[in-house]
Amino acid sequence: MQLGKYSIGVGDRFGMQAKSQLDAIIEARSRAVCVVPVWNKSYREHSIIGTKPADVRAAVETAVRDYAFTGEYHVDADHINMKNVDVFLDACDFFTLDVADFSGKPAEAQALRDFLQRHEGLVGRPLRIDGIEGELCVSIDEAEAIASKYLLAVQEAGKLYRHIAAKKGEGNFIAEVSMDETDLAQTPVDMLFILAAIADEGIPAQTIAPKFTGRFNKGVEYVGDLQQFEKEFNQDLAIIRYAINKFNLPGNLKLSIHSGSDKFAIYPIMRAAIRKFEAGLHLKTAGTSWLEELIGMAGVGDDGLEMARHIYAQAYERFDELCKPYATVIDINTVELPTPAVVNTWSAEQYCAALRHDQSNPAYNPNFRQMLHVAFKVAAELGEDYLDMVSKYEVEIGKNVCENIFERHIKRIFL
User: CA-CA distance, 390 to 388, in Å (whole number)?
Assistant: First the structure.
């Protein structure tokens, strides 16, 4: 099973937007650009909402059947580990191997020595890599430090991959290695050794998700040095191209950008780079569809606005509870959060303007948007009342979801 060159993670918190997300994919195909949809949902999200991976598969298959869609598509077991992987095995054909818990912990001493000996050609001598200016020269101390930080994590990814392969069979699924949920950004040199370790483990990774410099907060703009990001991104593409040949990794191996939605400042950089290197890209945009549901229901009916206000009020009161699991990927200035009393006075237009990611609108509030991004638990607790509201305003919400995925994301990077 091979993942297409361009792909996009279109997660759906409540499993009601598969058709609208597929609309965006079909629109891209009408422009002669094939972007593969990958519906992703994590164990944590399933636990909060009360769904199962089979529910995601069922919603996707229904959309595919209704549209007679013949293109490639996948269902991703997002950020899985050995503790929860088994519940995803039947429904999923894409597995994001998350071994962040092991990052920074050293492997056994003999394993470290063996790894460094296997790859002694990368150490202590100049390396010339096409696409990277000058030479890379990695000292033995640097190599040992990198291996000590990442080797154990990749070994765990290998165990997880082999567990899945034993159940599903080699070649029957796509593997991604996720290294993004760590404290420090990985350098291109780190990436080189990580890819060497992935090859040693026999993981046919088709995507890899590194942690880049800067903040990739949920649903809002990238925060960081654009020049530094551009340098890292281009160098990572060069390293991947080199590693594919050096370590015999899959030829379609590509970068995966987690929390990739709404990072409009870096989209031109990524667009230019993947064209320069003729490289693929996987962009995860999971949480934006849930926010478009809120915008849709708030914008078209008094009952929808009332529910959207209620969800915000509950989220505001439960700030610590809702934000804690996402502390590394949100950055909310509480001073800039409107109180529920203020929001309850807003019109539909005011609510939507504060929430919709339009940086040209002075009413847009990224703190308000991040707060609601992590508030889907409140909507889940409303149960059928929330789902019925989404169904009631299906047409308006669907239009928003499709436009968001296509115009703000696919069009800016892949077209």
Answer: 5
**How far is it, in rounded angstroms, from Cα 113 to Cα 85?**
31
Task: Answer for the pair 114, 130: CB distance below 8 angstroms, yes or no.
Answer: no
- Reported as a single tens digit per residue, the pLDDT across 50-67 is 999 999 999 999 999 999
**Euclidean distance between CA atoms 252 and 36, whole angstroms:** 14
**Run of H or E residues at 77:** strand 74-80
8 A C-beta contact, residue 216 and residue 260: yes
Dist. CA 160–CA 191, nearest whole Å: 20
Measured distance CA(294)–CA(333) in Å, rounded:
21
Residues 176, 207 contacting (CB under 8 angstroms): yes
Amino acid at 94: F
Place of tokens 């040949």: 245
DSSP for 132-152 reads SSS-B-B-HHHHHHHHHHHHH
DSSP state of 123: B
d(CA 308, CA 344): 10
* Alpha carbon distance 410, 276 (integer Å): 18
Residue ranges of domains in the chain, CATH in brackets: 6-287 (3.20.20.70), 290-404 (no CATH)
φ, ψ (nearest 5 deg) of residue 127 = -115, 125
Q: pLDDT digit string (tens) for 195-246?
A: 999 999 999 999 999 999 999 999 999 999 999 999 999 999 999 999 999 9
Hey, which residues does 40 pair with through a beta bridge?
A: 76
What is the reported pTM? 0.95
> What is the dihedral sign for C-alpha 323, 328, 334, 337?
negative
User: Which residues are CB-neighbours of 84 under 8 A, at least 6 positions away?
Assistant: 43
